[in-house]
Amino acid sequence: MKNLKQSSKAIHFGHDTKLTQGTRAVPIYQTSSYVFKNTNHAADLFCLKEDGYIYTRLNNPTNDILEKRLAAVEGGIGAAVFASGTAAISTTFLTLLKSGDHIVSSSSLYGGTYNLFENTLSRYGIKTTFVDADHPENFQKAITKNTKVIFAESLGNPKLDLVDLSAIAKIAKTNAIPFIVDNTVASPALLNPIAYGANIVVHSLTKYIGGQGTSLGGAVIDAGTFDWTSGRFPEFTEASASYHGLIYTKTFGKAAFVAKLRLEGLRDFGGALSPQNAFQIIQGLETLAVRIKQHSKNAVEIAQWLQTKEEVSWVNYPGLENNKYYQLAQEYLPNGQSGLVTFGLKGGFEAAKKFTDSVELFSLLANIGDTKSLLIHPASTTHQQLTIEQQLSTGVSQDLIRLSIGLEDVEDLKADIEQALKKTK
Ligand SMILES: *Cc1c(COP(=O)(O)O)cnc(C)c1O
């Protein structure tokens, strides 16, 4: 199993058919809880003396297989899955940080993550400095003695900027700060941030990994590479009051973070993934490698074609040779740049709304990474709560339309865009 290539691991890893009555598909263990053999067995499970299942908020055999597969395809040592990408991200921060701590983050973020940092974590005394990630030295400049996390999206949603992961990872390492990367838009089939020095990778499984728009899910993958014993993370090296004096780095070694994330994060914040959704997401992960190739192929073709349209004022896709991030894309995403394309119309905000209302095959909705093509006008929807300056810093201009290119025949997609463009005149 360990020697398989990535796409084979996505199909087989973590499932021993001998342990599941020979079922070829991963079964759905739809249960909230597990029968203990006796009171001593139960006591040993609760104090972590023995490995085993207690309650599905903490662990579940279906979720387990998904976790092992995700860790394998990202190159980590362990993973935990969550009810959504947002639950994965918020539980990560609530597990790692306390009041007074500081985050340095790229300003190019998914709108929900931006809100979490700017408006919600700040109420708990956790402050974030947002930096322009085009210049990695900006991360260094923003670090203070309280900085406990450096955060970025590998391919920003919706700005579609690529960050120089190696350069940022080097800064994080020098400063003994963990580097957390949201790899949702790129997906593990195109990019593995751990290979470039990321310590923790987070995903919304709702997007390309699930791939069919049926189920919410999230994941956190631990590279096992961060040294928590520097003295800056006492919760990892001092006795934990909630587990009878357990010391995470002593008991779990390299897996200290993912252990704490499950034992405290899932136990106390409760954002567990349902086994039914884990099953759906397992089906998606099995075909991720072939789907993302076709999403990327369709997207680059649409991006190139949009550039020839007279109504269009600009097109943004990192696979276009004239794109600001083309060089970084050659380095980090040589096998495809995923399925998101953004563009603007000469008619601005009003034309963008008209276009969005005129497409027929594309669906107007707030999701990405489906087999079906989707679109949204962020300035009037996902980002309307932000000021215009905040919108610009996260990469949203008034005229921006975000396309999530699906797996339909690309000629049908062009025909739909063509007829909608005509209506904007
Ligand atoms: C969608 C998304 C999230 C949030 O995930 P949910 O599953 O919707 O909670 C986080 N980061 C990125 C980049 C996303 O696209």
Query: What bound compounds does this protein have?
Result: pyridoxal-5'-phosphate
Instruction: Tell me the number of strands.
Output: 12
Helix fraction, binned, reads 25-40%
Q: List low-confidence stretches.
A: none
Distance between the termini: 57 Å
CATH architecture of the largest domain: 3-Layer(aba) Sandwich
Task: Name the CATH superfamily assignment of the largest domain.
Answer: Type I PLP-dependent aspartate aminotransferase-like (Major domain)
Biggest pleated-sheet summary: 7 strands, mixed
Could you give the order of the helices and strands? HHHEHEHEHEHEEEHHHHEHEHEEHEH
**Helix-strand category:** alpha/beta
- The total number of structural domains is 2
Instruction: Report the sheet-strand fraction.
Output: 5-15%
The radius of gyration over CA amounts to 22 Å
**Average of the residue pLDDT scores:** 96
Number of helices: 15
Q: Can you tell me about this structure?
A:
It is a single chain. The chain has 425 residues and is α/β, with parallel strands linked by helices. The protein contains 15 helices and twelve strands. Strand 4, helix 7 and strand 5 (179-182) form a beta-alpha-beta unit. Helix 3 runs parallel beside helix 11 (275-306). Residues 84-86, 110, 112-113, 153, 157, 182, 184-185, 204, 206-207, 216, 218, 368 line the site of pyridoxal-5'-phosphate.
